């Protein structure tokens, strides 16, 4: 029986299959091992993947990309608002949700992020059908560890609508460890693993502790300031300057010229990952002028020095958050399509010189392969040598806190469970009310930055009224193993009690 692993990234998707005791990436109908996460609406049809990307120069306003950033997020989410500002596609707010306005077959239609993501999953499903067993497409999805409940649910629903039978959703760092069979064939292995995923639009760095076949994500850090697109931008800026020096024409005056240059630059960057020199040739780049240039790997690497420093700074950050010294990192897994340039892998290897580098699998295929191996475990594949059973310790992806007002009447967040707290967990707190206070209202939130109340999302609230003077309230917070948070508040004198159960980000 075939079991599939699906990694839906910000810029590209990858599908792997576990069959007959072997795991491999399934190439699409063009022979490519990854598919661009791009959907285009045209006068004739809906294009997905390479066809959509190739037509984006002429059809920019109807070509949707980076949908992973907004799927499962509300209109008011800061990430959504940033996305709206940058998107060339017209976007509107419909009932608190993002909606694209695109021209399809001569008519303006609404397309939701769910529509776009489902179309991409359907393309992956067609690829899976060439290696599957009939209509059964058991699969495991891999998502970032910081994803919310809503985001995980949205990705699962889109995959299901596309025809995948979703067995489980796992965190990307854990999928990376599974790809290299860490803790599976040998469950006595104990080590700290740093997973460095440098994607097309963002970078996630995680520290995972492996013990007795169990994975626990100690800490993760994520940023959009370091990504494969940033390295592409550096090279594109250099080529734009070369064009200006030669012809005194500014490419930045034309969005179409910029798109043509960027597509050629991506190809050049990928070529430099394997060769010492790459050629750039673009017909009619700007105002009918052709452009031809040559770039060496050494020149490209010299331009990216500041970005490489940011790459290693993320390692410092995640080690500090996890409480693990960089010298205590035993293994490093490099993944993500943006991590292909040798200078990135060398910088990480030099920074963690005592750790073993695991980079034998192509970076953009690692997570999909790990997800496929998890799918094989869940389907009970008899050919699999991997160990059966639950292998990931579920942890909070965001900090759970109480929103309150301090004596200066400033809104502050008081942490109850820190980010990456493993399930289950229990905390007890005591609240003493002011002498004149006979009621209590407490907002329970999750946040990404405890110092910034604007990052807090309210999960629910508890209200207690008609309390005695100088009331003392005992609060018990129980983070349950299935991912819910049960809160009990009891006033000691009157024994008045309120309780609530909330879903939290696992």
Write the layout of secondary structure elements.
Layout: E1 3-8, E2 12-19, E3 22-25, E4 35-36, E5 38-41, E6 46-48, H1 50-54, E7 63-65, H2 78-86, E8 90-94, E9 97-104, E10 107-111, H3 113-129, E11 138-143, H4 149-162, E12 165-171, H5 172-179, E13 190-198, E14 203-211, E15 214-223, H6 228-247, H7 255-272, E16 277-286, E17 289-296, H8 297-303, H9 305-322, E18 331-335, H10 342-351, E19 356-358, H11 366-379, E20 399-405, E21 411-417, E22 425-432, E23 440-447, E24 457-464, E25 472-479, E26 484-491, E27 497-503
Helix pairs in contact: 3-4, 5-11, 6-7, 9-10
So what's the overall shape?
A: globular
How far apart the termini lie comes to 30 Å
The overall strand count is 27
- Which CATH architecture of the largest domain would you pick? 2-Layer Sandwich
Structural class by sheet pairing and helices: alpha+beta
The unreliable regions are none
CATH class of the largest domain: Alpha Beta
Give your account of this protein's structure.
28% of the residues lie in helices and 35% in strands. The model has no long low-confidence stretch (mean pLDDT 91). The chain is an alpha+beta fold and 506 residues long. The protein folds into three domains: 213 residues, ATPase, nucleotide binding domain (Nucleotidyltransferase, domain 5); 170 residues, Actin, Chain A, domain 4; 105 residues, Substrate Binding Domain Of DNAk, Chain A, domain 1 (Sandwich), CATH 2.60.34.10. The longest helix has 20 residues.
Labels describing this entry:
Nucleotidyltransferase, domain 5; alpha+beta; 6-stranded mixed β-sheet; globular; 506 residues; 3 domains; 5-stranded mixed β-sheet; Actin, Chain A, domain 4; Substrate Binding Domain Of DNAk, Chain A, domain 1; single chain
